[in-house]
Design a protein that fits this description.
The chain has 365 residues and is mainly beta. It contains three helices and 21 strands. The protein has helices at 8-11, 17-23, 26-31; strands at residues 44-49, 52-58, 71-78, 81-90, 95-103, 109-111, 134-143, 146-154, 168-174, 181-182, 200-209, 212-221, 230-238, 245-246, 264-272, 278-285, 292-298, 306-307, 325-333, 336-344, 352-360. Strand 19 (325-333) and strand 20 form a beta hairpin.
C-alpha cells in the first residue's frame, strides 16, 4: 500500500472530512460537541444570475451534528420524511464514518436511533468492510425497494484521506435504513492506474434514466498520472448498481467554464429535473481561495453543459460559514430546488456543519 505526501497546492483542493480532521487536532472534535449557532430563518443571503433563479441560502447551520466535523450530506425523500446520510466523526477512532439523520421539514433534524450515544446515528461500523477502515462522502438512494449507500473508503494511515490513497467506492444496502451491510468484500469501483481517478474515487452521485443508472463522481490523480494531476468530474453507467462501466472522458472536457471557476470541480450531485434536463451541482475547488458551489445543466447526465454564470453559494459574510462551501445534495420538490451542503468555519477551529439553500423552479428561466 502506498503512503503519499501531496504537494501543498494540491492539499487545498481536497476538502473531505478526513482531510479536515487531519488538518486540525482530532482531539478537539472528540472532546467537544458542536457549539455552532442555532438555525435562524431570518439570517439569509441571496445569489442571482441573469436568466437563472435566485438562490436563498441560510447563513446558520440546519444540522451541526454531534461533533463539529459533520458534512457531505446526501438527502432523499422517504415517504413523509427526509432521510440524510452524512460524514460524521467517530471520537473513539478519531476518523470519519457514516451516520444517518431524519427530518420532517429539512430544517430540524434528529439522529437515527442506533443505541450508541458516543456516535449517534452511526450507519457503518469499523471493520464492516475488508478493504477500508474509514468511510466518508456517502450517497444515499432508495432503489428497487431497498436503501443503497455508496461510500468512499480507504485505510487511514495517518494524515487523513489526503495521505491515505488509494480510496475506492463501496456499496452497502439496508432494508430498514438503519444498519447497512456491504454487498461485497470488495469495492464496486476502483481507480484506473494512471487515469483521472487513479488515486481516489470520492463523492459519487447516481441518477436513473430509462432503466440505466448514471453515476457522476470526483476522481483524483496526483501521482504516476498519465494525465494532468488534479481533481476531475467523471462518469460511469450500470444496470444493476454493482457493476459499473466508466465513461471514457472527463465530464467538463472542452466545456466553456464560468468566469468564477479557477481550478477544479469536485463533490458533484446529479439530479433530473421535471423538464427532463439534468442538473449538475458541483464544488468549485479554488486552490487557496474559498471553495464555492456551482451549477450546470445538460440534456444528458454527462452533458454537454450550460453553466450558471455565478455560483449558487459561497463563503458567507454573516454567520459561521466564513470559509468553504462544498458537497451539495439536492432535491427538487414542491416547486423548488432544495440544497443541503457542507459549510466550513475558520473562526471555530475549522468546524464543519450542514447548511441549506433553495431556489424556485424552474432553475433556468
Amino acid at each position: 500500500m502506498r503512503r503519499f505526501s501531496l504537494p501543498r497546492w494540491a492539499r487545498y483542493t481536497i476538502y473531505t472530512l478526513g482531510a479536515l480532521i487531519a488538518g486540525c487536532a482530532a482531539a478537539h472534535f472528540a472532546q467537544s460537541e458542536s457549539k455552532l449557532p442555532a438555525f435562524d430563518a431570518k439570517r439569509i443571503e441571496r445569489s442571482s444570475a441573469p436568466a437563472w433563479s435566485v438562490w436563498t441560502r441560510y447563513t446558520t447551520p440546519v444540522f451541526p451534528g454531534q461533533y463539529p466535523a459533520t458534512g457531505d450530506p446526501s438527502v432523499i425523500r422517504d415517504g413523509d420524511h427526509l432521510l440524510m446520510a452524512y460524514s460524521c466523526f467517530d471520537p473513539r477512532r478519531k476518523r470519519p464514518e457514516t451516520c444517518l439523520a431524519t427530518s420532517k421539514d429539512g430544517f430540524a433534524w434528529q439522529f437515527v436511533a442506533q443505541g450508541d450515544d458516543a456516535l449517534k446515528g452511526q450507519a457503518l461500523r469499523a471493520g464492516s468492510s475488508r478493504w477500508a477502515d474509514t468511510h466518508e462522502t456517502p450517497f444515499l438512494m432508495k432503489w428497487k425497494g431497498r436503501y443503497w449507500l455508496y461510500v468512499s473508503g480507504y485505510n487511514d494511515r495517518g494524515g487523513g484521506s489526503m495521505n491515505s490513497f488509494p480510496a475506492y467506492l463501496g456499496l452497502a444496502e439496508s432494508d430498514d435504513a438503519r444498519q447497512f451491510r456491504f454487498v461485497s468484500p470488495e469495492p464496486v469501483m476502483k481507480g484506473t492506474p494512471g487515469w483521472y481517478d487513479s488515486d481516489a474515487i470520492f463523492s459519487a452521485s447516481v441518477v436513473e434514466d430509462k432503466g440505466t443508472l448514471y453515476m457522476v463522481y470526483a476522481g483524483h490523480c496526483w501521482h504516476n498520472c498519465k494525465v494532468k494531476p488534479g481533481v476531475y468530474l467523471l462518469g460511469a453507467t450500470s444496470t444493476d448498481g454493482r457493476t459499473w462501466r466508466k465513461h471514457d472522458r472527463q465530464l467538463f472536457e472542452g466545456a466553456k467554464m464560468p468566469a468564477f471557476y479557477k481550478q477544479y470541480a469536485g463533490e458533484p450531485e446529479i439530479v433530473k429535473g421535471p423538464d427532463g434536463m439534468f442538473y449538475l451541482f458541483f464544488s468549485a475547488l479554488q486552490g487557496d481561495d474559498p471553495h464555492m458551489i456551482g451549477l450546470a445543466r445538460g440534456p444528458t447526465p454527462f452533458g454537454p453543459w450550460e453553466f450558471r454564470p455565478e455560483p449558487i453559494v459561497r463563503a458567507s459574510a454573516d454567520g459561521p460559514n466564513d470559509a468553504e462551501t462544498v458537497a451539495p445534495s439536492v432535491l427538487i420538490e414542491d416547486g423548488r430546488a432544495r440544497m443541503w451542503f457542507s459549510g466550513f468555519s475558520k473562526r471555530r477551529m475549522k468546524a464543519i456543519a450542514i447548511y441549506y439553500a433553495e431556489a424556485p423552479w424552474p432553475l433556468k428561466q
